[in-house]
Design brief:
Low-confidence stretches: 1-5
Strand content: 25-35%
Shape: elongated
Radius of gyration: 17 Å
Largest sheet: 8 strands, mixed
Number of helices: 4
Structural class: alpha+beta
Helix content: 25-40%
Mean pLDDT: 88
Number of strands: 8
Length: 161
């Protein structure tokens, strides 16, 4: 199998960039360890540029990760509805109970969602993904992460500082 079709590198070489019809240019970033390579790129989602972080499988093959990323990007319309529902059901209550400043007007769901700007999509070889959002001032400068399993179910979130 050629490197172009399998997108696989040896541990001793840096693979050539991958030009993908949906995702754009995907560049090798580094060998994280002997069984994982990291790649990066940018793509357009909902009219905005989003950074991509992709991780190879233990054989240093990136093909499955690229395929999964393409699915997530192409299905972003459906995903954005799931994201909005998850945020409304799980993130907004956390915000209202801990981050919202008393004495200020509480944002509507639409206002809350309008503050979220997708920045990064991280995809792993096992199909799991993390969506990274800039939530403006909602979480005091913290980022919002949404964690997704390989079946596109959002399983958890975090607001790392």
């Amino acid at each position: 199998m050629s490197r172009k079709s399998s997108h696989r590198a040896s541990r001793d070489e840096s693979p050539a960039p991958i030009e993908h019809e949906v995702l754009g240019l995907i560049r090798f970033r580094c060998h994280l360890n002997p069984t994982c390579d990291e790649y990066e790129g940018t793509t357009e989602i909902d009219g905005a540029e989003v950074e991509l972080n992709l991780y190879s499988d233990e054989d240093l093959n990136i093909t499955g990760t690229v395929t999964r990323t393409q699915e997530l990007v192409r299905d972003h319309g459906a995903m954005s509805k799931r994201i909005a529902k998850y945020v409304a059901d799980n993130v907004m209550p956390q915000y209202m109970n801990g981050w919202h400043q008393s004495g200020t007007r509480k944002p509507t769901r639409k206002e809350f969602m309008s503050q979220l700007t997708m920045m990064v999509l991280t995809v792993h070889a096992d199909g799991k993904a993390t969506y990274w959002f800039d939530p403006g001032e909602l979480f005091g400068g913290h980022i919002l992460q949404l964690f997704m399993d390989s079946k596109s179910v959002i399983t958890d979130h975090d607001t790392p500082g």
